[in-house]
Amino acid sequence: MASINVRKDTGKIFLDFRFRNIRCREQTELKDTPANRKRAQNLMDKVQAEIMLGQFDYRTTFPNSTNLKKVEACADAIASSSGQIPSMANFAALWFNENKVQWRKSYTTSVTNVVEGRIIPYFNQIPVDQITKQQVLAFRAHICQLKKRNGEAFSPSHINRHMKLLRAILHEAADRFAFTSSYRGVKPLKVPKSDIKPFTPVEINLILDNCREDFREYFLIRFFTGMRTGEIDGLKWKYVDFANRRIHIRETIVDGEVSYTKNDFSQREIHMSEPVFQAFLAMKQRTFEFDYVFVNGEGNPLEHNAVTKRVWYPLLNSLQLPKRNPYQMRHTAATLWLASGESPEWIANQMGHANTEMLFRVYSRYVPNLTRQDGSAADRMFSNVMGVVANA
After folding, report:
1. How far is the C-alpha of 233 from the C-alpha of 308, rounded, in Å?
2. What's the structural domain count of the chain?
3. 155, 304, 342, 375: which has the highest count of C-beta atoms within 10 A?
4. Position 361 confidence tier, pLDDT thresholds 50, 70, 90
């Protein structure tokens, strides 16, 4: 049912109606007065009449509307159902609107940047079934030539993320309109193995002894729990179990939005070692009145970019330590647990991994005695076995 409403924050009238099964809200510059309500109602009646007659032109009526993309994408979908193949611009917009409901805010933002900023401008009005493999590869070459703000080229993994979205769009279009996707046979760029750089015990103590006093517990807990940035920044006091010395990981915060953890395996309980337990007790004296364990001066959750740029990197620089991103604290926790001889299955659980595969693949080289290659571990095992046989 169409209606005339008023925004509480601005006091201005807006129109609320449905078009092509899409709910549309169009802001006006009219203040809420009887005369303006009458003007708005006349406009609404005109819109409704044109919709009923099939004569409504959204772009003409609301040329600056933010709803244009999704409305026109819907129109394109309707046209395609009658045998017309949509352009990449229209189908990509339709694909985006259909899928964004399942994405986090941060991921939606990154997809928007790629789809609206790169894919649509490049392919634009080319019908999706006429995009060739040569054009797909040319698009990848185009992305490879782009530069970051600092002048550096994009990494292979960054380029692969662009291509992954293009592949998804083309494959979906191919399924709907019964043509062969031009993306078939296009392989991702080879991504170099990530180089992790965990901190040594000496470096850890150097950092904790010289960091800002209000961040000591924050860094200590990161070093000794392996929590991801979004997990520790979004940690609430209700998830800190002092009685059982457990940290319940249930939420994460990214770009100010609280959401479900990275995946189901990330829902876990992390054991508090004694240093971590004492760090939480210290924090309890300072921030227990707030929802979040770690807060800024206004009592809001920490913003990771601000912490990284204003606290973390300046600290490393002052200590003349190699520049490493804060995520290396998570890697440090994993290598410390492995070096201590803890069960790999237990460590994988603490890290939020599905199994031990990533643990051994990424971290084992930092623990010389974990996977010995000189045969000594096997010699001891075989000797023990032979000793049992001889005494049988």
Report:
1. 12
2. 3
3. 304
4. confident
